[in-house]
Each structure stands twice: as structure tokens, then as C-alpha cells.
Amino acid sequence: MTDSSRRTFLRGAGLLGAGAAVSALPAVLAAPGAAASGHHHDPDVDDPRFTVVVLPDTQYLFDTDRGDSAPLDASLRYVLDECDDNVVFLSHLGDLTEHGLPGEFAGISRSFQALDRRRFPYSTLAGNHDIDSSTDDQRGRTPYLDAFGPQRFRNSPSYRGSTKDGYNSYHLFRAGGREWLVLALDWRPSAGGLAWARSVLAQHPHTPAILTIHELVDSDGQGQAHLSAFGQQVWDQLIAGSDQIFLSLNGHYWPPGRTVEKNTAGHDVHLHLTNYQDRYYGGSAMIRLYRFDLARGVIDVRTFSPWLAEREPRLSELERQEVERTGSADYFSLEIDFDQRFAAFAPIPVPPARPVGRQLVPGTVAYWRFEGGKDGVPVPEGKPVQDLSGQGNHLTRVTLPGSGAATLTFSSEFSPRQPSRASLRFDGGKKPARGAYLRTVDSAPLNVATFPRGYTIEAFVKLPADFKGDQHAWCGLFGRLGTGGQAGKTGDDPSEPAATLSLTDGAGFQWAVFPVNQQGISTNWGHEMAVGRWWHVAVVNDGRHTTMYVDGCPVLRNPATPATGIANPGGSWALGAYAYGKVVEQGFYGSLGDVRVVERALSPREFMLD
């Protein structure tokens, strides 16, 4: 990472002012616990963006008479007062101290009181330096248990229980509109401890879980992690058969590393090792930010030391090198489709279809939804798809020469944001033209409409993962079968359709129309879109200007030149075809959900989006 990008991150983390240069001093932060004890942690639990903070081995900071609590105090102060990333939880990964002595625990206990006073949710667990490493969780009373046992968490908003021995605990917190579970297991959980962990998961069968434990994976030194011998036991006895566990975090070994394993359900489990005790100043109380973004399906991971960052620019060259870790095991992003990953144990309930009447806003001239057909069954010839607006713009199937019935079928797939719960699947192509499409019947009023006062055309679209530019570019979603020339236009290429909403070779939407008031084509260009997911597109004309929206957001490339109405070449509109001249050149390839045409400009809040 360059210096400038590192500074960008530190600004985003709240450690440099927005206008600060690298040499600018950050504001002095308050001492731990300086805030009023009545100020409680209050994250936005419905925001799809939230952060879990991970704090690995701090043992050298609390090493009899050789420690220094200042780095940890700074990290906790940052989490409490400076971080603006909607932090919902903090996990310490064990080895809080070097020798597990009462005096060492007294020191780190004082630091953690800053979290206790604010009722900030966090978990700890015993590492091998915190207890007798030859024992398991049945070892009995220790200084660790005296300082960080169940009694410490009695006022915690997240703590839900421990094993009877007190060394294994679990926490629940809300974030992103749902509940999450954290298991904090001992250095060596016994068979009973692992059974308890399985029972906790069974008691919360719909809750995704993060496992924290001191030892699980080791690293090859190049950022690639692998299960240790003990980690393999934990995997076999707990993780592999517990689909709720999607992420594990451990310390103990160094340098950091990460890997992905498949559990018995065939789903990914991300296994991460984070530990910086061998680095400058015992790791300088490095923290790792796991920034969940449920909307993007991403966890962005960043690692840095608030203690060092708040002291810039007074750092030595060595210290500057340690402010942030940017290797592939410290600074990375995980792409996770959370809904899909959690579907086996926490399926999202599908809301019922929204009533047709609610979609018939004033000015609606056509509304098609494709319910009633069995999944995979071809749309029949000769049986019109009804226009639910009541305006008589029914659709009838046309199969291109040499194409089979299966090139246009009903589908049970749908966008969760569309009103109905069905779609059509088009299997079209070009060179030669292949597939099937729907056209408005000869008597449809839409065939002669010119929309002089404006219009809105909406559709829900999904492109398959194998959508290819050379095979499927410029396939039409919805457009007129007649040409600009047939409507009396002489500009640009009169053989182009009078109006067409198509897909570019980059899987972007394009609306190209011969307006009533122009001889040439007016074009709106969208942007390249991801395949394999549903999109909503809307083309809105207010009588003078046309704006394209994707998922309710206006695109950039909307023309400023006035464009009024849509030229009428005579003939039908087509759903799922592109015609050049008098010939349909290709059929659409993808899925179409609800389609609506309104004889006025709609605002985004009036779109069919939920």
C-alpha cells in the first residue's frame, strides 16, 4: 500500500483529519474511562454495515515488571471514542498476559474496565500463557478466571452464559438487522466444553456464529494458514458439522495467515490467524477491524495500531513501519453472499406477492407479470399473457424459426424486490437468430401510442452467469418492432428500431429511441452490471428529457437534448427481441420479471421496487 492510501485509511478510521497532511497531529484522545460512566454503547443495529474488532495476543504488554498498558489503552480508547465504523463487538483471542500472574491480570483488568464502564460488548478467552498450558478447561480456579470469569460479564449486554468451569463462554449481539453469536473457547476445551459449544449452537439454530479460540490454524509464513494438530480436533469435533460457524479467529501462532475450508455441508468456513506479539513493542496492541457490509456481500479487513497512529508524526522510522499491516493476510476483503451462506439454517422468509391493484398507478397503460405457469414449462403458443392494467395490451408468443418450445419458459425465480413471485426465462441468441419472444397483439392500444406527455418503462432483469458479449450483446428486453425509417425518421440509421431497451456487450442497459421531435436517435447509456443477480431498470421521460435508473439510482449518461415521446412506426411492441429493419436478429438471453409501462414520468419512489 502506498503512503497516500495508508493515510486515506487512517483518515477513514478517524485518526487523521479530513484535511490533514501526513505530518499533521491528531487531536489528543481522552484517557481510558474518562467518559461519563452513564454513556453506554449504542450502535445502529439495523445498519447493514458494522464492525467487529479483533484483539490478539497482548501478553508482552502485561509481563510482570516489563509491560506497558499504554498501547492497549489507546486501542480500547479508539474503539470507544474514535472509531466511526459502527462497532458492535470486540473479541480478545487469548494470551492476555505473559505468565498468568495475579499482578499481570490486575493490569490488563484495569485497561478493560474502560469497556466495562461503557457496557461495551466484548469477549475474552484464556490462552496458553494465561493458565497452565498442560491443562484443559477443568483446571479449576486461576487468576484468569478471577479477573475474566463469568462474574466480570454480569452487566455485559452481550454475555449469555458459560460452561460450569467458567472458561468457555458465548455472546449474542445484534447487527445488520439480525442476531450473531460469538463462541469464546478455552485454550484446551475438554470434550465437555466442545459438547457445550454444540449445545449452544443447537439452542440458537438460526444464528450465524463466529468461533474465537486461541489455537486453531498455523501459518506457513507466506500468509497461507493450515489447521494445527489440535485445530484439526476442533474442526472434526465442532466446526465441520456446525454449519452456523462461518468464521473462526485465533492467535497463538505467528505470522498471520488465512485459509478457507469446506464443512460437511459443503459451505465455506474462513479460518484466520492474527497475532503480532513478535513485532515492535509486542505488537503495539494491533487491532483488526472486520468491517461487515451485508449490502455488498463483503467483509473488509484492516489491521493497524491506534497507539502508533495517534502519535504521528512524532514516530521514528521503525514505528512508522508498524502503524498499519498491509500484507495479504492483514489487509484484504472477503466476498460472502451472506443470505446464500446462511440459507441452510436461516432462510430468509419470502414475503407474499404484492397485489396487482397496488401496481396500477395513475397512467398505467400496461402491466405484465408471469404467474400461473409451472417452473420450466414452455409459454404456450396462442394463449395470450394478459395485460393486468385492463388496457388490452396482451402479449402473444412468437417462436423464431428453428427454435424449440423450451426457449421461452415460465420460471419460479424472481427478484425479491418485484411485486410478483415469478418470471420468464428466455434462451435466445443470434447468428442465426434463436429463441422466442412476446409481442403485443394487433389490437393493442400500445401499438399506436407516442407518449407526448412522457412515459415510464420498468422491468426486472437477470442475466445468466454465462452471458457473453459476442453471443448476446444488444439482445432486446423491450422495444418496438418497427423502425425509425418506418416512422418517417431519416437521421442516424433509420433501420434501427423506433425504440429499444437493450443490453450492451458489457451487460449494461441502453435505451435508444427516435423521439417524435427529433430525426435522429436519443440514447441513454447505463453501466456494466454484474451477471447472476436481479436488477431493476426504469426509463423515465417527462415530456422533454429521459433519465435511466438502475435499482432506483439515476445513471450518468442521460442526454440533455430534449426528446419528446416515441415515434410510431406502426406494428407491435416486443418483449425479449431485437429487430433490425424488418427482421428479428436475436432473442433475449436471461430472465424477465414484472414489466410495467406508464403514460407519465414516475418518481423513483413510485417504482415497483419494494
Alpha-carbon Rg, integer: 30 Å
Distance linking N and C termini: 41 Å
What number is the mean pLDDT?
93
Number of strands: 33
Biggest pleated-sheet summary: 8 strands, antiparallel
Report the structural category: alpha+beta
Please estimate the helix content.
10-25%
Beta fraction: 25-35%
Overall, the morphology is elongated
Low-confidence stretches: 1-14, 16-38
By DSSP (H or I, 4+ residues per run), the number of helices equals 10
Summarize the structure.
This protein has 610 residues and is an alpha+beta fold.
How would you describe this protein?
- The structure is a single chain.
- By secondary structure, the protein is α+β, with helices and mostly antiparallel strands.
- Strands 17, 19, 20, 22, 27, 28, 29 and 33 form an eight-stranded antiparallel sheet that branches. Strands 1, 2, 3, 13, 14, 15 and 16 form a seven-stranded mixed sheet that branches. A seven-stranded mixed sheet has the order 4-5-6-7-10-12-11, covered by helices on one side.
- The relative contact order is 0.09.
